[in-house]
Every structure is written in structure tokens, then in C-alpha cells.
Write a structure and sequence with these properties.
The complex is a heterodimer. Helix content of chain A is 37%, strand content 16%. By secondary structure, chain B is of the alpha/beta class. Classes of the chains: A alpha+beta, B alpha/beta.
């Protein structure tokens, strides 16, 4: 290649790489995490999961415990918010709570989802809504992992499973 | 003859200003095109790496993140290189015009080994990076991948296939097998590339979560495999159906060479420059599997195509089975061995053996009389030189100087007691393009001679048959 052209190509390449680098360092969009068990009666406050490694936005979550029916009419199935166990994975702890209405899971809310680093957060922001969708439509924790997020899937679903057994589902 | 016509002619004979000017402009355009393609290859790589960086790959929280980043980077770079390699083998005219067929094929071949090692590094870094935090060793983690991710399992199989293709492409192994066998194995590369695609989109953090990155990645595949599909498969297929080539004449020359003339429909639509070659396939029992590169030995006239071959080695018997009526197909034309590539005023053709064929075709072109023209033919004896009568007649017609060097081999490219160098034959060599066609070792001598006379690389043109 002619020297003058090579200089231009090199300069443009460095520019593109610098832009990519800068985009990679930008703060990651944070994962919206739920407050632990709103309205539910949390009994045994368990140790906080993997203290320190959890992302700073998390509130003190309580582990593996119950919630009781808040309303007077006696329902056919369990109703309430149930917190799942904190499950340690290679990329941090995963913990969720499930909202159950009359034996049906109506929401899965993330409490702690791995480390807050950019790559993990990027993966998890994609994976968590998909996992919630799968759990809600299957009403089960035995659903397919999200590809590209096998650690998150594993931890998340294990926590859902724990919460479900607490709820007696 | 009017004065203007007379001047026009003398100008043409001396390699007039206008044709020199046009040549210089053409050379400049070609250099710009070639550099643009090279720049495109760089940008394709840089773009992919930029998306990798933008995915936050360089933000590390654990030591293994460095391994994972390195693993992802090597995977991305290897894939871009593979796509460049596929493009180089696609025979796309927009690429061959700049590089020449031989250079494209050589570049394609030389990229294989480096790519393979980068891919092995990719697999190793990723496996260690994923296995180490949970205490799995290389084998345990590979087993975990095989069991837990279909896409990664496919990628592992792909790597194994590439390993096999790589080993069979090592020169020593390749020589032991017939070309057809080797080529069939080589085609397994397509399958290997295809089954490695899913894991790039499903588990590749660069492309799985960024639509722009995914679109970019798909675009690279489309360009590489699109070119391959069009120029290597669809165009030749279309040519075969449209032109339906048939051998009409088989002429045995006294030196042992054979001229084959092919006719077909609508041949005036198939543009080729004198000096170019085609990859020919003749549908006889022994020849239909392999395409052979042969130069046109006559300028194409829109009705027929002629090649001249000297049966040597394996194919000698097979070539004798070609009769008038034998069906044929061809892909091409290829090569930059044409008047179009000239950058100087005059031209010197140096040929030996069957290498005379493209020179013979180029002499038919009127451009051969544009500027000084020398033809140097080297042969051991007069009876061994193919097409020598035709060449000397054409030389006379074009007003070209014909030098026939006959005799035993000397220390260089010339004969034992012949002129020692190109410069001693052609006094104004520095103002000429040198076209060399003949056996490889012999051609090396000619080029070394031309280089030592100070002829720049850009005005030395060599035909190498590669496919």
C-alpha cells in the first residue's frame, strides 16, 4: 500500500478502535432490582448473600423465607411474595423473589443478579426478562437456559425453584 | 497517406504520448483499487474488534476475564480472516482484477496455517477462562460445553474438522493424494465454517446482545460467501448452460503439442483479453473431474476459443481422448497477463516451452505494435518449440523483433553460448514491460535478470497457473 494511504488507513482504524473502547467503558445500564418482599411478612432474616460482591444497588435481601397471605378471603392456593435462596455462581450470587397469587406465579423479581460489571450486566439485562417470561408461562423453574447466559440461568432458576418450594408450589 | 495519419502511426510505433498517458492513468487507478481492497480488509477486522471493545470486553473484574477477552478476540479475528480467505478463493473479478488470480490463490493458501493456530488459541483461552473459576480443567470444561451447549458443541466439532482439513493441506500430504480427493476434503471447510456460526450469535457476547454488531457480522458473511456463490458456482453454471462449448478441432503439432479449438453459442458475449487463461473441463472419462488452467493460444474472435497444450505427465494419455465433439466447459477468463497491464512504452515477451501460448495470443492484438516489441523464445531445439511458425509470422506482421535462442541450457535462463542477459538483446529494456511465461525455475532466472537491470516489479508480468 502507498505510504500516504497506509497512514490514513491506520489513523482511521485507530479512531474506530478508540470509539469502540470508549463505548465499552461507558457505564452499563443497570438492572432494575426489586425491593425485597414488599408487604410480605419476612420472618427469619438470613445472612445477606455473598456480602460485598453483590452490586451496590441491592437492598439487604433476606433469604429463603416465607410470606403469608395478606388478605382475609381464604384462597385455594398460596398467595404472597416468596423470597428464593441466594445461589452462588461463577459470576456472583443470584437471588429472586416470586409473587404468587392464588397458586399462580404472577411475577419474578430479581433481588441480586451477579456482579455489576459491564459484561455481566449486559448479559443479565437481556437474560433476566427472558427467564422471567419462561418461568411465568411454564409456571415452573424447569425451563430452558438462555443461551449466552448459562450461569445466570442456572442461579436464577435455582432461586426460583427454592422460592416455589417455600410457597408450597 | 495524409500527414496526420502518418504522425499518428509514428507515434503509435514509438509508444506514443497518448497510450503512455492512458497506461499511466490505468496503473494509477489499479493501484488505488488494490489499496482500497487492502484497506477494506483492514477495516473489516478493525470494525469487528471495535464492536468487541464496545461490548465492554475490556472491563475486567476477575483475572479470568482477561482470558475470556483474549479468547473472544482471537475468535473474532480468526473469523474475519477466514472470511477474507473465502473471498480470496471466490474468483470475484473485482478482487482478481487487482491481485491477479495467482496472487489471490497464493494469499488464500498462506493464510490457512496462521488462522488455524489463532482458532486453537481461541478455543483454549475460552475453555480455560470458563473452567478455571469453577475448578474444571481443560478436558472437564470441554465435556461440560459438549453436554450443556449445542452451539458450542458444534463449534468444537467445527474445529476438529478444520484440524483435519489443515493437516491434509500440508504440502507433503497434499502431494500424495490426487487433487480431486484433496479438494473434496477441502470443501468440508464450508461445513465447518457453517456449523461454527450459531455459537457466534448465541454465546458470543459481542454479537448476541448488540443488533448493530450482529448486522455487521452477518454482512461480512454475506460478502464473502455471496462472492463465492456467485463467481465460483452461479456464473460458471450460467456459462456452461449458455455457451455449451464443444471441441470442434484437434490439431497435433510436430513438436508434440496439441491445439484444441472450441466453439459454442453466443461466444461474442464472453469477453476475454488475449493472454488470459480459463480453467477448462473436458467431459471425457478421465478428465471431467478436474479443471485445468490453459491460456488461450489465439485471440478470442467471438466464435471460437483455441488453447494449445503440451501433454506431460499424468494427463498426456487423457488428453489424447479428446476428440472433435467432446463437450467442454470453462470458467474465466483469469489473469493479468495482458496488454492492459502494461505500464511502459515498449514490451518484451520472454517465453519457453508451452509458455509461448499467451504470447502468441497477445501478438494478435494490435496493441503489440504500440511501442517497441521484442519476442524472445528459448528452446532446446527447433522441433521442440510449440507454435513457433505462427509466432514468427505474427511477429513479422506486427513489426516486432523476434529472437529465437536455440541450444542447450546455460547457467541462467539463456542458452549456453547465447546472449547473457535481456539487456544485451533489448537495448531500451528500461522502457519496456517484461512478460515472462514458462517453467517456474526458468522464469525465476528471467525475472532475476530483469530485476538486476533495474526493471521495477510493477513492469514485470508473470503468468503462473494456479487454481
Amino acid at each position: 500500500m502507498k505510504q500516504s494511504r497506509a497512514v490514513v488507513v491506520t489513523a482511521m482504524s485507530l479512531g474506530v478502535l478508540a470509539a469502540g473502547w470508549k463505548a465499552g467503558l461507558a457505564p452499563a445500564p443497570s438492572l432494575p432490582l426489586a425491593e425485597s418482599a414488599p408487604g410480605g411478612l419476612t420472618s427469619t432474616p438470613a445472612p445477606t448473600p455473598s456480602s460485598g460482591s453483590a452490586s451496590g444497588t441491592t437492598t439487604q435481601p433476606s433469604t429463603g423465607t416465607t410470606a403469608t397471605e395478606p388478605a382475609p378471603p381464604p384462597p385455594a392456593g398460596p398467595t404472597g411474595t416468596f423470597v428464593g435462596p441466594s445461589v452462588q455462581t461463577a459470576y456472583g450470587a443470584m437471588q429472586v423473589q416470586i409473587v404468587v397469587s392464588d397458586g399462580t406465579i404472577t411475577a419474578v423479581q430479581p433481588l441480586v443478579i451477579g456482579y455489576g460489571d459491564r459484561t455481566s450486566t449486559r448479559i443479565n439485562t437481556q437474560a433476566v426478562p427472558i427467564l422471567e417470561q419462561r418461568v411465568l408461562s411454564a409456571q415452573s423453574a424447569s425451563v430452558a437456559y438462555v443461551s449466552g447466559a448459562s450461569y445466570t440461568s442456572q442461579g436464577y432458576l435455582a432461586s426460583v425453584k427454592g422460592a416455589m418450594s417455600t410457597a408450597g408450589l | 497517406m495524409t500527414t496526420t495519419a502518418f504522425f499518428a502511426q509514428t507515434h503509435a510505433r514509438a509508444g506514443g504520448f497518448s497510450s503512455r498517458h492512458a497506461r499511466r492513468r490505468r496503473a494509477k487507478r489499479l493501484s488505488l483499487w488494490r489499496d482500497s481492497l487492502e484497506a477494506t480488509a483492514w477495516f473489516a477486522t478493525v470494525g469487528a474488534v471495535a464492536f468487541f471493545l464496545a461490548s465492554g470486553a475490556m472491563v475486567w473484574t476477575m483475572p479470568v476475564d482477561a482470558l475470556n477477552a483474549l479468547g473472544r478476540l482471537t475468535g473474532i479475528v480468526a473469523t474475519v480472516l477466514i472470511l477474507i480467505q473465502v473471498t480470496l478463493a471466490s474468483r470475484a473479478p473485482w478482487m482478481e482484477r487487482a491481485l491477479g488470480h495467482d496472487k489471490a490463490v497464493r494469499l488464500h493458501g498462506s493464510m490457512g496455517a496462521p488462522i488455524f493456530f489463532i482458532l486453537v488459541a481461541h478455543a483454549a483461552f475460552i475453555t480455560v477462562g470458563y473452567g478455571a473459576p469453577v475448578g474444571r480443567d481443560l478436558i472437564a470444561q470441554t465435556a461440560f460445553f459438549m453436554g450443556h451447549s449445542k452451539d458450542i458443541a458444534l463449534a468444537i466439532v467445527s474445529l476438529a474438522v478444520l484440524l483435519f482439513v489443515g493437516v491434509t493441506s500440508i504440502a507433503a500430504v497434499r502431494r500424495r493424494w490426487p487433487y480431486e480427493t484433496w479438494h473434496a476434503i477441502h470443501l468440508a471447510t464450508y461445513a465447518a465454517i457453517a456449523i461454527a456460526v450459531p455459537h457466534q450469535f448465541s454465546t458470543g457476547s459481542t454479537f448476541a446482545f448488540n443488533h448493530w454488531a450482529a448486522a455487521y457480522w452477518i454482512a461480512l458473511y454475506v460478502v464473502a460467501f455471496g462472492s463465492m456463490l456467485i463467481w465460483r458456482y452461479l456464473v460458471p453454471l450460467h456459462r456452461a448452460i449458455r455457451h455449451r462449448l464443444v471441441v470442434i478441432d484437434v490439431k497435433h503439432h510436430s513438436d508434440g503439442s496439441i491445439s484444441l479449438t472450441m466453439v459454442g453459442r453466443h461466444l461474442d458475449e464472453w469477453f476475454a483479453r488475449p493472454g488470459q487463461f480459463f480453467l477448462w473441463r473436458f467431459y471425457t472419462k478421465d478428465l471431467w473431474l478436474t479443471a485445468h488452467p490453459y491460456s488461450l493460444s489465439a485471440a478470442p474472435d467471438g466464435r471460437s476459443l483455441r488453447i494449445t497444450v503440451k501433454p506431460l505427465g499424468d494427463d498426456s494419455a487423457a488428453l489424447r481422448h479428446i476428440r472433435p465433439g467432446t463437450r467442454a466447459s470453462a470458467s474465466g477468463p483469469y489473469g493479468r497477463f495482458t496488454h492492459h497491464s502494461r505500464v511502459r512504452g515498449g514490451v518484451v515477451f520472454v517465453a519457453a516451452g508451452v509458455g509461448i501460448t499467451p504470447v502468441r495470443a497477445m501478438l494478435e492484438d494490435r496493441q503489440a505494435s504500440d511501442g517497441a516489441c521484442h519476442i524472445i523464445v528459448r528452446a532446446r531445439s527447433v522441433d521442440e518449440a510449440p507454435l513457433i511458425d505462427e509466432v514468427s509470422a505474427l511477429a513479422q506482421e506486427r513489426g516486432a523483433r523476434f529472437h529465437f535462442l536455440v541450444g542447450p541450457r546455460g547457467t541462467g535462463w539463456s542458452t549456453l553460448d547465447g546472449p547473457p542477459s535481456l539487456e544485451s538483446i533489448v537495448p531500451d529494456l528500461h522502457d519496456c514491460d517484461v512478460f515472462v511465461c514458462g517453467p517456474e525455475k526458468w522464469a525465476d532466472f528471467v525475472i532475476a535478470d530483469a530485476r538486476s537491470s533495474g526493471i521495477p516489479v510493477e513492469s514485470i508480468h508473470r503468468e503462473e497457473y494456479a487454481w
